[in-house]
Model the fold of this input.
Amino acid sequence: MKVYLDNSATTKLDSRVFAAMKPYLLDKYANPSSIHLEGQALYLALEKARNEVAEILGAQTRGIIFTASATEANNLIIKGFARANRTSQKNKILVSELEHPAVLEAARELADEGFELDYLKANKRGIIESSELEKKIDDKVLLVSVMAVNNEIGTINDITTLAKITHKFGAYFHSDIVQAIPYLKIEAEKMGLDFFSLSAHKFNGPKGVGLAYIKPGLKIKAQIVGGGQEENHRAGTHNLPGIIGLAEALKIAYKERSSYLKNVRTLRDYLWRSLNKEIKGLKVNGCLKSRVPANLNIMFGSIEGEAILMDLAYKGISVSTGSACSASNLKSSYVLRAIGLEAYNLNSNIRFSLGKYNTKKEIDYTIKALKETVARLRSFSPVKTPAKSKSKTKK
Amino acid sequence: MALNYTKKTLDNFLKPKNIGKISNPDGYAQVGNMTCGDQLDFFLKVEKGKIKDVKFLSFGCASNIATASILTEKVKGMTVIAAKKYPWQKIVSELGGLPTQKVHCSVMAVQGLKKAIENYEMEEEKKGKKGKKKPVLKKVKAKVKVKKTKTKTKVK
Done:
């Protein structure tokens, strides 16, 4: 049996999305920037998609800038906005320490250019509290960036409140909402988002397309220059099949939101309840309540994460240790470190991220397989399985 | 990231050889720790200068388990002198290659084994200083037993 539980890394393309994209791959291939009839017809299709996306996300249509990824969108917003608006009074950037590397690295580049950079600390539950922002923000701050949902532990930040505090200090607010679709309803204008970024492949859309929202009127410096597409914010021929796919995937995601959320929560809760019952010494990383219903991040204690991952992989189950990004450099998770995991527990965690194609049968299979995997690896571990009562006695 | 393990590596991960403990080992060592993300414990039984048995425990990734497994397979029956010099490169080639970021696992495995052999040699040296080898060991054991019974009777 094959079970894909790595939906925070990427998702399967919805066949309806593919059907919507197909004509734009095969027949409607003209360049929407061309002024011949074929091109102009596609220009209309492009703008229709932009409109639809803006409407679903409660944003202004003109602010939607299509990119190739959320990483690109994060780079454009953070570097582009900071570089275009820097003054001697406003030269400080605040980012949360739980951000995706796309935000962290972009901010670090700004620090190299002389910007002052500070980090918002997460609490032990994995949430950036408003008091933390109030403590760190001052009139020198130009931009604050806090993700809506964390990619490793799925915890949710109150971005509306954080945006409000940010604005009091004359600063601007960006949120990486990549992991929030469709778990949170996004109403950009109401929530006070000046910027946000997302990518289609996280919600059953195609890979290779994302968007940056830049509230109209805000000055930004393009990071990719060329033919002046996207109101001079992002050059490059439009990936129209991708954009059509993004819009279609977003429409479906929000149309089917309530039934999906119910299903995925039922499965996730069932997975955790069963694992916790059947396997000793497990612990959920981060707050279980204030997290998206698709995420479960578990600490196993006495066995190593990659060994668990590989053992499951050979049973047909795809999961990840931390995030797919941190797997490439074999460094332990900075997110888990930030929420206070002891150093010796950093290499013993698995992220299960569910999606809309998972079934009860798959979860049952996963529970059974994981039980065997954990028993096998623990049977030759030199480290004792952490006892549940231990943490209780500490309290 | 390329993390393509060879079939042999996977076999040694999924069905590792020589896992477990040896009670009263002649040599024991631990390398690495949980904070680094990998730890190996080696146990040795030595007879007439040769490795009669070797077992290991692992907190580690697939290649940590696989490298220790193949190493223990290869050194069983070898003299401790030869086993101590077993090169990590040979583990890599025995497994048909390891991903670059996993080569350190093979280094750690040979270090662990070497440490366990050194532990055995140290113990042997201690025994050697006390006199002849085997009889001394028996005498020591006997003394301990006598002490134990004495204390027990005292308590009673």
